[in-house]
Amino acid sequence: MTLIVLNFKCYRESTGQEALRLAEICEDISRDYAVQMVVVPQVADIHAISETVKIPVYAQHVDGVGYGGFTGHVTAASLKAAGAAGSLINHSERRLKLAEVDAAISACRNAGLETIVCTNNVAVTRASAALEPDYVAVEPPELIGSGIPVSKANPSVIRDSVDAVKCIAPHVGVLCGAGITHGEDLRSALELGSIGVLLASGIIKAKDQRKALEDLVTGA
Amino acid sequence: MTLIVLNFKCYRESTGQEALRLAEICEDISRDYAVQMVVVPQVADIHAISETVKIPVYAQHVDGVGYGGFTGHVTAASLKAAGAAGSLINHSERRLKLAEVDAAISACRNAGLETIVCTNNVAVTRASAALEPDYVAVEPPELIGSGIPVSKANPSVIRDSVDAVKCIAPHVGVLCGAGITHGEDLRSALELGSIGVLLASGIIKAKDQRKALEDLVTGA
Amino acid sequence: MTLIVLNFKCYRESTGQEALRLAEICEDISRDYAVQMVVVPQVADIHAISETVKIPVYAQHVDGVGYGGFTGHVTAASLKAAGAAGSLINHSERRLKLAEVDAAISACRNAGLETIVCTNNVAVTRASAALEPDYVAVEPPELIGSGIPVSKANPSVIRDSVDAVKCIAPHVGVLCGAGITHGEDLRSALELGSIGVLLASGIIKAKDQRKALEDLVTGA
Amino acid sequence: MTLIVLNFKCYRESTGQEALRLAEICEDISRDYAVQMVVVPQVADIHAISETVKIPVYAQHVDGVGYGGFTGHVTAASLKAAGAAGSLINHSERRLKLAEVDAAISACRNAGLETIVCTNNVAVTRASAALEPDYVAVEPPELIGSGIPVSKANPSVIRDSVDAVKCIAPHVGVLCGAGITHGEDLRSALELGSIGVLLASGIIKAKDQRKALEDLVTGA
After folding, report:
1. Which residue from A1, B174, B206, D115 has the fewest beta carbons nearer than 10 Å?
2. Which secondary structure element, helix H or strand E, spans residue C122, and what is its range?
3. Which residues of C touch D46 (CB under 8 A)?
4. Total count of domains within chain D
């Protein structure tokens, strides 16, 4: 089933009560259409959302540490306790050191959380796949929030990423990110070999978020 | 009233259900003794705790950004929506850039959150007070988690910090951190001119957390 | 004497042989006009430049560590040995943590290097002055490289910074940065109470660097 | 020919004049014994050393940026101009973000510099090899500076790294780091499939650096 991961970022339209409302819309979409939606709110919003909706809730970031004398870190254990099912790792707005990406994947695996590592080009996709997360999401940073879908602007980065991952770690799923908004973007992302999309602004900032999501999933 | 700020850090004994249980103990202490307790759990635990206890809940870290296209950040708005009343800033285990400390204080002020900036020596206390948070907490990093109270190991760092703050920004309260565990530590912290303490491991890792807190507040 | 600090950044026109050539131009300007020029090349260029010119050579960044088991750090001792006379600290393109700014100032003081801490607004200028570097350079980041001089776009940030520093640490000199290119920019910077300017792109990227510098200093 | 890479770190015994003296010893060793020595001094020391010795001089760190408006960065172009032949990347004391490791390798390739990416375990070695540097140096951080050679404490991390690299990018050379000091350490590193070693404290802090190096290379 097509995977649609919606990064809530830190927009006013997806924080607090608004985050809860948007998560419920995503749950409706997931139920009404043949897609698996994942919502990715801010950490402070995870508990309330995971108490309310049945679809998977991911964090936007997780630190690769276990229990211990750390302050201000986001531990996999605390995410799990709050009801999260997974986490983004290394999003272009929250890049991690190479060893931290590895540690975050391990910490999530230990805590029973799934992982999506975000990457910026084919070489970094190869490197990330070598660390064996559940998914990689390829997002050329210059296209994030641009409204120009990567599947149109630079289809080879997706195709080559899919090929590279198949070669290095075939069980890792490839998601297509950056500039995805419309049904045709999703369709071409799937045609290029990805199993779904990671998207954000195009939906969050839409006048009618529900309609934007419906257009996305029915256009496909 | 003496301020007792308990940093939960990321210990197993203060995550998820354990965090909730510990927050309830702190609420009891706050009610039963003439102290104002503040609990500082991980961000993912804030919502459940603030729904349960009446004492102030602070975050361990906040990023100095408003609403916007950020991923993996901890915004003041999301903390406020989850029920937080304030945040630590620049803890020694989560140091921020100078301009980020300033931005975090502003972001909290805009969102109606209180701020405690952690510092490591008198010069940095002076600099932090110049940014006008609500509180500074002086914690020489070599004493954090040591069990050796700063008020004994290095009383002049507290006394000189209190003097420096009085001079630069007299409305900023000074907290004494690092190695605080027992009633006598609290008492000498107050005698040195601080208005309370920031503590963590000494309580969290105690065999009996409630008893450790009672010893702390009655010993004073 | 007016202080003119030229940050070479990492431009092609100010790296390697080009850095050497530009430093010699700055030395000429310093000798021919009543100004004190300071050149700030990349660290790898400091040794060759300080062997060639007599004017002070500063680094663009220094880490607040002494001798020890560090890798990839820029120590004050190595800068001193290469002939540097000082360093920028906390430039907007190389922000440091608050405690690192303090440590870098101390490390430079111990090694006999002068320090210029870069700041982004009045509050951060106050905080930086409290750490007692030799100079602070106020540079609103949105104006860096813009060609719009801060002295015109936002004169109060300079005036208020000068006032704040006078109050907190009167021996700290205030430099005016961001968007400074022409003689009138320098003149108004001095009228606002600064003792000189920190500038970069406007000179480095000029068609004729020598002429740009002459216009700057004679226009004042 | 066996590759021996000596990281000078920031020790007093390997800064400024001492760095120059040590580089000359390394040149003697390289000439007198059948090994290829590479010296890795601080950036500020590269120019003077590369003017004096004929063996390759590497930087301890390089930033993945080209020419441009950057401040405090170490560009590949500036290293090349100062006479460097390559750089360490991602040393455990100077970890980089994943995308920065990739960018630093590209920047070095463009500038004609060789690259050694430091890694901390087999998974990160795999990921780094996927980025195709010239070499990876496997250094479990807990053994760095310990005097306990990785080849003894944890030989499988070297053997498995060699196997993983052979599989992913067979042209990438594997170096063995962490705790290497004596001839037998070098010998077992080579037996495990590495083509040389990356070492530091064991030589730099030796009473007689020349003798320590001779013991290393003749013991092999």
Report:
1. A1
2. helix C122-129
3. 44, 47
4. 1
